[in-house]
Amino acid sequence: MKTCPTCGVATADERVFCETDGDALVAMAVVVRASSVAITQAPAAMTCGACGAAGGGEIDGCCAACGHRVRSDQPTLPVVPFSAKLGVCDVVGARGGGDFVLRGDRGEMTLAFGVAGALAGEARALEALGGVAPFPELVDEGNSTAVASFVAMMAPPAASRRLTDAAASFALRDVLAVARALVDAAARVQAAGFGWSPDSADVWVTADGSIALSRLRGAKELGGERLDAHAVLEAIGPVFLPAPLVMGVPRLLHLMLPNVDVGVARDPDATRVELDAILADIDTPLDEARFAAVRDAGLRRDHNEDAFALSSGDEGGDAWAVLAVCDGVSASAHADQASETAAVTVRAALVRFAESGDRDAVSDAMVAAIHAAHVAICSAPIQHDADNAPGTTLVAGFVSRGRLTVGWVGDSRAYLVSASGAELLTRDHSWAGEAVARGEMTPAEAMRAPLAHALTRCLGPIEDDECDAQPDIRSCDLREPGYVVLCTDGFWNYFSDASAVASLVHELGPGARASAIARHLVNHALARGGHDNVTVAVYEHAP
């Protein structure tokens, strides 16, 4: 481990300069004897933080080996090899995260260091918990006010694996089992009067599938505060990304990943109830229908302004399906009402068309349906100021007789995915989309521009309550089995290329149902950050 002589931050051995203040880092190690800390001091100026050369090779304030400036006014720092001892235990290496490994007659132990007094809360919490699994047993503690505090504790069982190494192989039930075990541990820490800020590197999985902890990092007395069980799960959630979390349900990602509710303490009992509900969701059979949609607020928004509407039927043996997805313009008033109004209006208009039996004027019907949605928003009793009128994007699909017709306004998208490839069917009505269409920029260049997501068309009075909706329409034949994917930019911001969408769809294997794919795509957007509302609708085409 290395430390910064200026700010004291410890960092990995391979680092050369401190990320906080840019100073050269120096090596740090500790001699521990007779159950007390004894630190060997060496002038920091004798060790070059750039190349590690030691022994006084300094010329005019610079390292004789590499020429790097060596500050002669640095304070002395602990510099000791791994021949140190804690009683009869040897310091045999680094455990990671700034910790050392001790080995003795009782097996392996963890030796943790921090600034003077920083580990006192952890030592007190471990003492209160008594070393009962999954908590480590406190072996020793000490303090050198000049340099560092230390805590020595028993390491996890020898057959254990660090969670960060095992997580990718977990099934969803394994994830939930670890989550429940950590919530149970959090409840016991809380009952002992302490809080806890775990690190995923401190969680180990034993041979029988239970958990063990190598540290109780960040433990402190609660006082009048509450322990946040959600924060405990958020600390380990990222190790399960993308798999296995993306194979679950969206509410599992909301529980395991940092989100808009950060700072709102969750009681361990309430978190257990949520885990039970998630398990029930996972065990619920998926809908076998050929179309489905999933809508999620995302991890960074406290409300959802997306909407969708679906319908299907059969007229005289002629099956048809309608899908509509809308994304309310977040800068406008009551965007959620605008998106909901647009989705249900388009669906109703296309259902009436489907039930009429007329299939010769699909494009005209799509234009009329979208215009009706525009009028419905403009005439709806939605309170707004003149400069803050409601608006929404819309993408709709109508499938009948092996043919798909798509209509859209704004930047919600439609993709067609099959075994032979994938295609983006829509062109964004946005500043970036228009710049690409004019050949002025590549898609990558346009998306980096400040106005990339500025809409050039949308529905509602935010656009112009006197004008036509001005949709674009496209039709294509569905010649082979595959999927029609409609989505808001909360999804495609992370996976814009058609090939990327196809890869996610194909992860579930051939024959995956529309409900599984819609959920899977939403999960992937959440796993990538979930910064916006995200909605995905999927239609499974099987000629």
Helix content: 25-40%
Number of helices, counting only DSSP H or I runs of 4 residues or more: 13
CATH fold-level name of the largest domain: Phosphatase 2c, domain 1
CATH superfamily name of the largest domain?
PPM-type phosphatase domain
Q: Report mean pLDDT, rounded to a whole number.
A: 83
Label the overall shape.
elongated
How far apart the termini lie comes to 62 Å
Number of strands: 30
Low-confidence stretches: 26-46, 58-62, 66-82
**SS-derived structural category:** alpha+beta
Q: Examine the secondary-structure arrangement and name the CATH architecture of the largest domain.
A: 4-Layer Sandwich
Content of β-strand: 25-35%
Give the biggest sheet.
6 strands, antiparallel
Number of domains: 3
Q: Explain this structure to me?
A:
This protein has 543 residues and is an alpha+beta fold. It folds into three domains: 153 residues, no CATH class; 123 residues, Orthogonal Bundle (Transferase(Phosphotransferase), domain 1); 251 residues, PPM-type phosphatase domain (Phosphatase 2c, domain 1, 4-Layer Sandwich). Helix content is 27%, strand content 26%. The strands form nine sheets. It has a six-stranded antiparallel β-sheet with strand order 10-11-12-13-15-14, covered by helices on one side. Strands 21-30-29-26-27 form a five-stranded antiparallel β-sheet. It has a five-stranded antiparallel β-sheet with strand order 22-23-24-25-28, with helices on one face. The longest helix is centred in the middle third of the chain and has 22 residues. The radius of gyration is 30 Å and the shape is elongated. The termini are far apart. About 8% of the residues have low confidence.
